[in-house]
Amino acid sequence: MKYYDQISGQSIHRLEFLSDGVFAICFTLLILDIKVPIAEGIHSEHDLAHAFATLSPKLAAYLLSFMTLGIFWVAHSAQFYYIKKSDRKHTWINIFFLLFVSVIPFTTAFLSEYIAFKFSVALYWLNLFLLGQMLFFNWRYVEKHHLMDENIEQKRDIGKAIRRRGIIAQICYVAGALLCLINNYLSIGILMGIQAGFALGLFSRRMKNNKK
């Protein structure tokens, strides 16, 4: 009889369902931090426009994190397209990845509330860094323990593309975060630009087919 550690965490489909569920909840939670301005004290169009303008930090943080979640969901699903099986350790790597996904609504709210403070930017960047590290570690584990579909061609090129994407992302995030030493709003703007670049595929490089 196999040990429990050898038989648990085998279902790749339940892991995907859990991941999609956590991402879906976090997408929804982001918008709940943005509250409609209270009607009391608003007596004119100018008052309403001013009240809406005060929401700009929260709206900016919302947009940033919505793209962040989208990028990491796409990256996670891209890896799972090539993963055929799982084991207990691989399952727990992904559960810890989801831990940092679930923190995004909090770090987003913290950033929007204290947008002028460098600590809030650093905390948000740390969240991105840990997400990237867990995703990178997940793929390394998959390669090392042969969890990929054996019938997939160009495994080496696929692995290189995934690792390269992770490295480029981390470098860009570090650069964006360090700009908070100059100006917080510049740092957040650059981070939003980086996320938009990833979402639009501006940092991607087409994988060349090796023809013999």
Poorly predicted regions: 206-212
* DSSP summary: helix tally: 8
Cα separation of the termini: 47 Å
SS elements, strand count: 0
Largest sheet, in brief, is: none
General shape: elongated
Overall pLDDT, averaged?
A: 86
Query: What is the alpha-carbon Rg in Å?
Result: 20 Å
User: What structural class do helix, strand and pairing data support?
Assistant: mainly alpha
SSE string: HHHHHHHH
Could you estimate the helical fraction of the residues in percent?
over 70%
The percent range for strand residues is under 5%
Oligomer: single chain
Whole-number count of domains:
1
Which key phrases capture this entry?
mainly alpha; 8 helices; disordered C terminus; about 0% strand; elongated; about 210 residues
Folded structure, characterized:
This protein is an all-alpha fold. The protein has one domain. The chain is built from eight helices and no strands. It is elongated. The model is unreliable at 206-212 (pLDDT under 50).
Q: Outline of this structure?
A:
The chain is mainly α and 212 residues long. 73% of the residues lie in helices and 0% in strands.
Topology:
Blueprint: H1 4-7, H2 12-32, H3 45-53, H4 56-82, H5 88-113, H6 118-144, H7 155-178, H8 184-199
